[in-house]
Design brief:
Chain lengths: 387, 559
């Protein structure tokens, strides 16, 4: 060190040819480089992890719940995940439902059954139920409603419990929301997968051919794309439903037949600029077929923009499905998608907000995850952002 | 920014869970609980409220009618405007009894065939032009013109002499049994004596329409307030498509001095929970449909839940013309597999009676309800799985084997959707059969049902007039309202007898025989007998709803 400081900093080093040729930074492949930048972006990794967890949740989750998405328990409708229970005269836990009935709850948070209604005391604003041979009164004269002793009016002590029978509560028909959420997420991911697939196949080929061939072919193909993209998707889906009937297949066909147009435009633009470059000229000179040039040379070079477009289109496809479900178009009951769950819940919004909140949160989580991954990929794939 | 958005989201989630988890300062006695409803009891009971403030109110409707032409539509969503803007020869008063509307009095000939109506003095249209018996003649002839496409035409052709012939073009206006003797006297001749014809006359298909505006504007006369001439307590002063209809007091109404309300706005809010928000914030004065999950709460809080008895039944049509539903045993199995009490208590969450027949109670002869003491046809409030399985086995489908997938159709409506989903699950579990549900807009759904293009379909029937005859044609062979395609010559013969029976007690007896016959065959899938409920703030009084679900606003007072 001392030697270095004494030297003139501006004097040339004694360098050999090997030293001069040496690349000082670590050498990485393109993929390695992308991965390096991707994993150094926390939001991207978070999105990636969320997607992985959601896939596991939707595929393996149903194996671990005792319920089916269609099984109803009409005695247990609109039960929230967290219950405020009253400790009854014989120590039992009592929960007041939104329809002003009382259900018993076990000490472990498992819901039991509805109490039988004995009589109605309208002038006292009370409904009397029988619990373990004793009478308890549901007083609805004030807010909140309470369970009390009929004669003294003393309110029983309260406790707050997690609902362990239905971890996320039940909907308006007594179905387990957690199980329905798994099936709903599965549908969202299927839609994501389908959107990705049609983008990768139709979008890339269509855009690639259009851009590479050019001329009249390009003009005609792009006008077709213009026509397709002017038809509002909602209208289009409704028309397809009328022909094909309701169900996930109609949504898939509807999304699949129009969702590739953006991708086709992007690929065409990329191919148009890339095909002027020297490596394409070289490939042409050595006699490569147009197929080879397109698939081996042009598309891989455009892969950056393709991946970015893809990850941006997937969330919009998921959102479109949820939106259609919310409008009541698409799946037929009892099938659940996140959109139809929100739709079912909106009628009970005032009394059971958890029914809307949970699927809405799930839609948010999926959208965030895909957008973060898309964001991360865009930064990682853009060499200009290299640090 | 993104990080912030995420943490805000998480904070929101946390806040919600905390809100529901923590609770401080627990009250110890019910007297400590804030009495939110203490002062409601006193105001609710006052019948004669003094008018105070602006006599204006807004009432929310949740379905848009297909039209506002009384001669054309049979759509019950149109009734709020039609009932309050038009008045026929007779109408219903607060107690639900039939009173004169445009007609001050009427005489019935001894043979029960000729009705002579004496109209009130000085009747006028809302535009001030005089109103005569000829207007009724014109209106009925218009209904009987095929190009009018009146949906209720059978309510005229079935009763009035030569009406069917006039409709078919084989009779002239002179032959038709509707004649104006002079400006104030109208004579109606019937095909046969019909004891309940006056009840039928209360339907809006018999309401008068003004010849001048109809001829000047064609079908468009109902689409702008200027051309919408009417004769009832209110007139239309504004309408925006799919948004609202504004009614104002009709100064030319014969009883205008007893109409206090100046302005009545019907606003369309299709989403029930949005409507409830508007109601609870005081933005509107009443809403027609209560979200089922809020019903118990609103009732407990005395927030203005109004319950009126209704002469109607919620039942599901079973298509009796297609296999396997042409087999009464299959229909019996379907009827037995439904847990009606659970549907009422947990799904619809209303006050209703489980139904075992399509004919609702509510019609009395000599102070006794005619349905009293009838059989329950082997059905019960809860599902009888064993009996249902046995009936299905007897029909040739032991344990549901070989039974084709049942198609359950419904129209888009929050409550109906919930009922259908719950029923589908009951049928699946109790009969061990496959059920598929499908939904459509009301218009498409109803067309399918009318064409018999369904297996089991959501339906309901509110009587158009207070007589069991309103129900009987539903299962009569060849009747346009028979969408179940149930056909039983014995039943048809009984219905014919009821129609021509002039003695009410005898007619009631025959009615019950007919209803028994069809109910024993399980001609439909009855669920529950309706009651009508809507929300109205306590400062509004004087409105009334008849058992045929017509809501009258003419005597409303805002205080």
């Amino acid at each position: 060190m001392a030697e270095l400081t004494q030297q003139n900093k501006w004097a040339p080093l004694q360098a050999s040819d090997a030293d001069r040729e040496k690349i000082w930074s670590k050498s990485r492949t393109f993929a390695g480089d992308v991965w390096f930048r991707f994993r150094h972006k926390p939001t991207a990794i978070a999105g990636f992890v969320i997607i992985a967890v959601l896939i596991l949740f939707s595929i393996l989750g149903p194996l671990f719940t005792p319920y089916d998405y269609a099984v109803q328990n009409l005695e247990m409708v609109n039960i929230p995940p967290i219950m405020k229970v009253y400790v009854g005269p014989s120590g039992e836990y009592l929960y007041i439902t939104q329809s002003l009935r009382i259900i018993t709850v076990g000490k472990d948070g498992k819901v039991g059954s509805q109490l039988t209604r004995v009589r109605e005391e309208t002038d006292k604003s009370m409904t009397i139920f029988e619990s373990n041979g004793k009478e308890v009164a549901l007083y609805y004269g004030g807010s909140p409603y309470v369970v009390a002793d009929e004669s003294t009016g003393n309110i029983y002590p309260t406790k707050t419990l997690w609902n362990t029978s239905y971890l996320l509560g039940t909907d308006a028909l007594g179905r387990d929301i957690l199980t329905r959420l798994m099936y709903g997420t599965r549908i969202s991911l299927v839609v994501a997968f389908v959107a990705a697939l049609v983008n990768m196949i139709i979008g890339i080929l269509y855009g690639g051919v259009s851009g590479y061939v050019g001329g009249m072919v390009d003009t005609v193909m792009m006008r077709i794309v213009d026509i397709i993209s002017t038809i509002p998707l909602t209208l289009y889906v409704i028309l397809i439903m009328q022909v094909m009937g309701d169900g996930i297949q109609s949504i898939i066909v509807a999304l699949g037949s129009v969702y590739w147009v953006d991708m086709a435009r992007v690929v065409r633009g990329q191919v148009l600029s890339l095909k002027q470059q020297e490596f394409v000229l070289a490939a042409k000179t050595i006699g490569s077929s147009p197929k080879t040039i397109l698939l081996q040379h042009l598309i891989p070079n455009a892969m950056g923009s393709i991946l970015v477009t893809l990850t941006m289109l997937i969330p919009s496809a998921i959102f479109m499905e949820a939106f259609l479900g919310y409008l009541g178009i698409g799946l037929q009951p009892p099938l659940a998608s996140l959109g139809t769950m929100c739709n079912d819940a909106s009628a009970n919004l005032r009394t059971s907000p958890h029914e809307l909140f949970i699927p809405a949160l799930m839609i948010c989580a999926i959208m965030f995850a895909f957008n973060f991954v898309g964001d991360g990929l865009r930064d990682a794939l853009d060499p200009k952002l290299k640090k | 920014m993104k990080k912030k958005a995420l943490s805000a989201l998480l904070a929101g989630a946390l806040a919600v869970s905390l809100l529901s988890a923590c609770s401080s300062n627990e009250p110890q006695n019910i007297s400590d609980v804030s009495a939110s409803t203490a002062d409601d009891t006193s105001t609710a009971a006052t019948a004669e409220a003094a008018p105070a403030g602006a006599q204006e109110m807004t009432f929310v409707l949740n379905n848009i009618p297909d039209g506002l032409d009384p001669g054309v539509t049979n759509n019950s969503f149109a009734q709020y405007v039609l009932i309050n803007c038009f008045e026929g020869l007779v109408t219903y008063d607060e107690s639900g009894s039939l009173v004169g509307g445009c007609a001050e009095s009427w005489d019935i000939s001894d043979d029960g065939l000729v009705y002579t109506f004496h109209l009130r003095d000085g009747l006028k249209w809302s535009d001030g032009t005089p109103f005569t018996a000829n207007d009724f003649v014109y209106s009925i002839q218009r209904v009987l013109t095929p190009s009018t496409a009146a949906q209720y035409v059978s309510m005229v052709t079935g009763y009035i002499k030569n009406a069917q012939e006039f409709y078919d073009g084989t009779a002239t206006a002179d032959d038709l049994g509707v004649k104006a003797i002079d400006d104030q006297t109208l004579e109606i001749t019937l095909i046969q004596p019909t004891s309940y014809f006056i009840d039928v006359l209360s339907m809006w298909v018999y309401d008068p329409v003004q010849q001048a505006t109809v001829e000047a504007n064609g079908d468009a006369w109902t689409s702008s307030p200027e051309t919408y001439v009417c004769n009832g307590p209110f007139k239309v002063t504004g309408m925006s498509l799919n948004e609202n209809v504004i009614l104002e007091k009709n100064e030319n109404y014969w009883d205008a001095e007893n109409v206090t309300l100046d302005k009545l706005t019907f606003r369309y809010i299709l989403d029930n929970s949005t409507a409830l928000t508007a109601y609870e914030s005081g933005e509107v004065d009443g809403i027609i449909s209560i979200p089922s999950s809020d019903y118990a709460r609103l009732k407990a809080e005395k927030a203005g839940v109004q319950v009126y008895p209704s002469y109607g039944t919620v039942y599901y049509n079973i298509n009796c013309s297609v296999a396997p539903y042409d087999n009464p045993l299959v229909r019996k199995a379907l009827c037995l597999a439904i847990d009606r009490q659970s549907l009422i208590d947990n799904v619809v969450q209303v006050d209703a009676e489980p139904a075992y027949s399509f004919l609702a109670p509510g019609y009395s002869v000599d102070g006794k309800d005619i349905t009293e003491g009838r059989s329950n046809y082997g059905l019960s409030a809860t599902a009888d799985v064993e009996a249902a399985q046995a009936a299905l086995a007897e029909a040739g489908y032991p344990n549901g084997e070989g039974f084709p997938t049942l198609q359950l159709s419904y129209y888009q409506d929050d409550t109906v959707k919930k009922i259908v989903e719950a029923m589908a699950e009951m049928l699946k579990n109790n009969l061990n059969i496959n059920v598929e549900v499908s939904s459509n807009d009301w218009a498409i759904f109803y067309e399918d049902v009318q064409q018999g293009n369904y297996e089991v379909a959501a339906m309901g029937w509110s009587a158009d007039y207070l007589n069991p005859m309103s129900f009987l044609p539903l299962f009569k062979t060849g009747d346009s309202s028979n969408n179940s395609f149930y056909s039983n010559p014995e039943y048809d013969a009984l219905v014919e007898q009821v129609m021509s029976e002039s003695d009410t007690a005898k007619a009631a007896e025959l009615t019950m025989q007919a209803a028994d016959l069809a109910s024993k065959d399980y001609c439909c899938l009855p669920l529950y007998y309706k009651s009508n409920s809507f929300l109205m703030h306590d400062n509004i009084s004087g409105y009334y709803m008849t058992a045929s679900s017509n809501l009258y606003f003419k005597h409303v007072v805002v205080s």
